[in-house]
Design a protein that fits this description.
Elements: E1 4-9, H1 17-32, E2 35-39, E3 52-55, E4 82-86, E5 89-93, H2 96-105, E6 110-115, H3 117-128, E7 133-137, H4 153-174, E8 176-182, H5 189-197, E9 202-204, H6 212-224, E10 230-235, E11 247-249, E12 259-260, H7 263-274, E13 278-283, H8 295-314, E14 319-324, E15 327-332, H9 333-336, H10 348-355
Parallel strand pairs: 1-2, 1-6, 6-7, 7-14, 8-10, 8-13, 9-10
Antiparallel strand pairs: 2-3, 4-5, 11-12, 14-15
Helix pairs in contact: 1-8, 4-5, 6-7
Length: 362
Amino acid sequence: MTKTIGILTGGGDCPGLNAVIRGVVKSAIIRHGWRVIGIEDGFDGLLSLAKCKPLTLESVRGILPRGGTILGTTNHGNPFSYPVEQEGAIVHLDLSEKVVENIRALGIDALVAVGGEGSLKIALELSKKGVPVVGVPKTIDNDLRETDFTFGYNTALETATDALDKLHTTAESHHRVMILEVMGRYAGWIALESGIAGGADVILIPEIPFHIDRICDAVTRRSARGSRFSIIVAAEGAFPEGGSRVVAKKADECQTIERLGGIGQFVAQHVQKCLDMDVRVTVLGHLQRGGSPTTFDRALGSRFGTKAVQMVAAGDFGRMACLRGRTITSVPIEDAIRDLKLVDPEGEIVRTAEDLGIMLGR
């Protein structure tokens, strides 16, 4: 029986999304002879039939090494609480029934939702409304539970580590303290692993509130040993003991989640006061989301895409593809989003960093 699969990519973009799309399209068509409909701009696309278009083998030719997503994405479109301007004010409407109606009108037998925690929460709610949904985990933050890795994370790590390699040479040349601010939201995985791989001297992560005076002491001790420069990696969600996170933009009626950013400058200002050294900040920002995916992310995205089609064929709905060890399997979506996968402050990777002499702010 010919099926029609819908696929969308929601939330922030990341390298490897096109590999997933390609994996779904090729597997569905070659293995099963099914139709695939690409839904543009995340769940927003399901509010307009004009944004839903067939995907063919020709549609995905050459996209494997491309960053971003050919379908487009958004992290603002929640159909269960959709912002609409009425009489000069923003109100949030539940447009989920419209989404369900359009899914039926398109003849979609199963929806593959590729996204992070927020997108998968929406997918789960649609599943409760009777939509056959399969989830695929996507985030550079690697903070989704029930999967060892999310695609996009490895590429972001490579970008951050490459930046640290470059910062080392200029920091040493000018005898400076260089601070690299990286993404990750409330999880410190990018900062911690890139910091270890990039030879950082101090790593600040959200899971371990930091003390400025101890950071200054660590840099001073390095100087006393003859190291006239230091490298600090700061996760955007890091914050001082007894303090709060630095927020670039607070959540409001249109943006439902706060936008983090500015911790690098915060640390620089305070470190500058206690050290007789020049301090400079580099904010890596959206470079971590861009560029061609690494081999790991291309392969993982392809495996997730084909697994999603296998799950549709088996009727395994309401579940998310995941990586366990070296095997791709699946888990209930609700298990994957019950809370975030954060760095264990007493875990092995933190111990590794501290055994290498890296100071974590405590």
